[in-house]
Amino acid sequence: MDSSTTGTTTSTPATRRRMRSGAVALGGMGLLAATLVACGSSDEPDKRCASRSSLEHLNMKDCKSGGHGSYYYGGSVSNGKVSGGSFDKSAVTRGGIGGGSHSGTSGG
Question: With a cut of 50, which residues of the chain have pLDDT below it?
Answer without folding.
Answer: 96-108
